[in-house]
Amino acid sequence: MTTPNWEIGGRALGSRLLLGTARYPSLAVLQQAIQASGAAIVTVSLRRESASGRAGSQFWSLIKEMGVQVLPNTAGCKTVKEALTTAEMAREVFETAWLKLEVIGDDYTLQPHPFLLVEAAEELCRRGFEVFPYTTEDLVVAERLIQAGCKILMPWGAPIGSGQGLNNPYALRTLRARYPEISLIVDAGIGKPSHALQAMEMGYDGVLVNTAVARATDPVQMGRAFGLAVAAGRLAYLAGAMLAQDMAEPSTPVTGTPFWHSSPQEPTK
Amino acid sequence: MIIEVNGEKRQLDQPQVLAEAITHWGYQCALIAVAHNDEFVPRSRYAATPLQDGDRLEIVAPMQGG
Lengths: 269, 66
Prior knowledge:
- Chain A has 269 residues and is an alpha/beta fold.
- Chain A has helices spanning 27-37, 55-66, 80-94, 114-126, 139-147, 169-178, 193-201, 211-214, 219-239; strands spanning 6-8, 11-13, 17-20, 41-48, 69-72, 98-101, 130-135, 152-155, 183-187, 206-209.
- Chain A has an eight-stranded parallel sheet. Chain A has a two-stranded antiparallel sheet with strand order 1-2.
- Chain B has one domain: Beta-grasp domain (Ubiquitin-like (UB roll)), CATH 3.10.20.30.
- Chain B: This is Thiamine biosynthesis protein ThiS.
């Protein structure tokens, strides 16, 4: 899984799994989970720093040491202004123009605010950021984000941290079909490796997971499970799945079967 | 004068620039980014950013995120 096979934001990476770094039981577990998952991109954030505390520096040293690509987020931002200022601060601290743009419109579902998101994305693209917008599955919002200059979209599967999986597979499939050239990553709501696999089988370019790994009983093993699921889903997409049908079709050749009948039989008593 | 730092009011004895205030509060060795009255201030501008009574500062550092 380490051979670079994915071009995203101008980089060639070896894994299509993006891993969040929050909510792990410890930094040691976080580090092991990243390693076990094979994730090449991890999300990071900015928080208020007290003059005495240096909580962030130990975390940041660990991430830098690991040599993974970081994707800073604007978590908690509710206005365009907050998002733009946070983005600039993140670019300076993390020394990358990559940005997971979050502008939240509802406190209970943490649903992205579509209008403010588009407005912020326009300005950040203009300022040279590689914007990864956290958005809903809405097709028209996606269109507007692309017009704003985004080459990557991150529709939610379900609300952040809910673990519900892909709530609207139809809309996610529609996005894939409508934008074959855009990098699509399912962000948020993934609860199990099967959800990630489902997204990858649909042809999604990647999956971003945090809570499902961090809050697993064994985050390290779960990280590995997600890495495998994402890789398996990608392989399955490339291999091309068969079409589903209503009736059975014998997999074992029928001709020459013992007691063979040429037409379907009534059930015997 | 009073400066609001990360939502808390802090006293500064005399008018000074952001670079001096950061050192005064003990942030000089930390990897931080700063917003002054909601505007991002690049590191290169700390020495040229005067603080005034009632100004607001956000001082942030790397943290885990999803």
